[in-house]
Specification:
alpha/beta, seven-stranded mixed sheet
Length: 365
């Protein structure tokens, strides 16, 4: 599926695109300044991150984002505006000349089964305050076409990281893109940092630094079995997750074992996350691993240990790509939308068609 380019020629280059990503784990706002150069066809692109920063949310804004699912409609629209104002301020501090700003926004609701997904972050405010063309709301058209609206990153993976067998992201959720066949396959594997951070909060911590709490515990077989038995893990792709699933499925299991020491629950959670990832990595060759979970030394040690007898190997890139890959990917997806080219994969999301998804806001300049 292709579209007439009504905006500009992709051969212009390099394209400088600023990508914004805000994950459900609320680590902060990821801002990646990226350069992309088009080749001779739609799959011949190269790119790089030239600058990356993660801006920590002010405590008041973080608190509102954390409780966004329970806000009234008016309060949610105020948060939509305020997230964009904060993000525009971060972008402007970079003082970078760019062609485009591509914003994933911050997910509040994700329920593709009922036909909706909501990522806040007013594109109008972003365009007005940065004076840049803005692409945002990248998931909703795919959902309207019957898709999951996720994962979208596999489109970028298939073009920009084709040298790998697969790409694995360890964010609030773990997701994987399998690239070693003609048709890219991808899905959300399960929970990752959202679970670990939830447990760490019992000690007043934002996260378990390097997995030190988890490494001091032991695996509890009954808890591990209940987590591995969750229905989602036995569903075939396409499938995707939102924080709603954590609240409805993960929390009740944790509550049933809250009498166990935190160290044991954390250790068991690491084992659970690692097993679901290894079970989803049915490939050979190198799997690129990015996302904040890479910094969890104990999680990475379990992944390497459990994959020892398999034909694939987990590899990590430089720090900018570890932290900035999702912002980098959404910068590329936004560029494809700006060029009116397909930026979703029907084979991944389960939509009726692949589409050029996203809203475009043009500032007065």
């Amino acid at each position: 599926m292709d579209y007439e380019d009504t905006l500009t020629a992709p051969s212009k280059g390099p394209w400088v695109v600023i990508g914004l990503m805000s994950g459900t784990s609320l680590d902060g706002l990821d801002v990646a300044v990226c350069e992309f150069v088009a080749g001779h066809d739609s799959l011949d692109w190269s790119g790089q991150i030239t600058h990356f920063e993660c801006f920590k949310y002010p405590s008041e804004l973080a608190s509102r984002l954390r409780g966004s699912m329970g806000l009234t409609s008016e309060k949610l629209f105020q948060l939509d505006r305020d997230w964009a104002r904060f993000s525009a301020k971060c972008v402007n501090t970079l003082n970078t000349k760019a062609d485009l700003l591509s914003s994933h926004g911050h997910t509040v609701f994700h329920n593709p089964k009922d036909g909706y997904t909501v990522q806040i972050g007013s594109g109008a405010d972003l365009a007005a305050l940065t004076s840049l063309p803005v692409v945002c709301d990248l998931r909703r058209l795919d959902v309207a076409y019957g898709g999951q609206g996720a994962p979208l990153v596999p489109k970028a993976d298939s073009v920009l990281f084709s040298q790998y067998s697969a790409c694995l992201n360890l964010g609030g959720f773990a997701n994987i893109s399998h690239l070693n066949s003609q048709n890219t396959r991808a899905w959300d594997i399960g929970v990752c940092n959202n679970l670990l951070n939830l447990l760490a909060s019992e000690k007043g911590l934002e996260y378990d630094d390097r997995g030190e709490i988890a490494s001091s515990g032991k695996v509890m077989p009954a808890l591990l079995n209940d987590l591995m038995s969750l229905k989602y893990h036995h569903l075939p792709p396409p499938k995707s997750l939102g924080i709603e699933w954590v609240n409805a499925e993960i929390r009740p299991v944790l509550n049933a074992y809250k009498q166990l020491p935190l160290e044991d629950r954390m250790c068991t959670s690491i084992e659970y996350i690692s097993l679901t990832i290894v079970n989803s990595s049915e490939t050979s060759g190198e799997i690129l691993v990015t996302g904040g979970g890479v910094l969890n030394t104990y999680l990475m040690s379990r992944l390497h240990a459990l994959s020892r007898n398999h034909s694939f190997e987990f590899v990590t890139p430089d720090l900018n790509m570890i932290h900035g890959k999702e912002a980098y990917a959404f910068a590329f997806l936004g560029l494809l939308r700006f060029l009116n080219k397909p930026n979703t994969l029907q084979s991944v999301t389960g939509a009726f068609v692949s589409s050029s998804s996203g809203a475009v806001w043009m500032p007065n300049r």
